[in-house]
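Practice problem: Protein-tyrosine-phosphatase
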Amino acid sequence: MSSLFKSTFNSRFLNGDNIPYHRYIRSDVPNNISKDEIDWLYKNNFTTIIDLRSDWEHEHESVPLEIDNRFIYLHKPVTIDGLVDIDNINGIVPKTVADVSKSYILMADKNMKNIINTILNAKTNVLYFCSAGKDRTGVVSAILMLIYKESRNSIIDDYMKSLDNIKVIFEKYSKEFPDINTDIIYPKREFIESFLDNVNLNNII
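Answer key — structure tokens:
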């Protein structure tokens, strides 16, 4: 599927049978968002913006929405068991496939609880994003879908849409950095399935 915005690669509504219609947008970083797209967000009441990126990412890659006073811009980094590597350009980067699955579970910490509560209690529609919109944003999306009692297959399908949306970017990234383990950057069913099998929502809600 294509992205909701021309300026991003992986923006889409979080849809489901029980999720309020067009209440949430999940996305990769909207650092090149256009004026028309910003105006569209405002017109459609997407005025609560949640930045899930690390401190380093937030400081080194600005987002125009942060300086637009029509929006409530909240920087709430996703952490792993309360920790985040603020010096890393991509925030949290697992080294192995097993680490990816483990990292998803460890994201369900006290900071995630705050993020989820902020999204659920927002007075407006919400746009939330990380860098690529697949891992940190994927975990947040899965938790929201669990809370809304969406089916397991729906959650997995939503997660896997990121593979189609940003596959070209991953391929380019792999060519530029041939030493990178591509198994850890591509969304895989096993990652989200492991998360769904092991996450404890009682720690979050």
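Discussion: The helical segments are 35-43, 55-60, 97-106, 110-120, 136-147, 152-176, 189-198. Students who identified this feature from the tokens alone can consider the problem solved.
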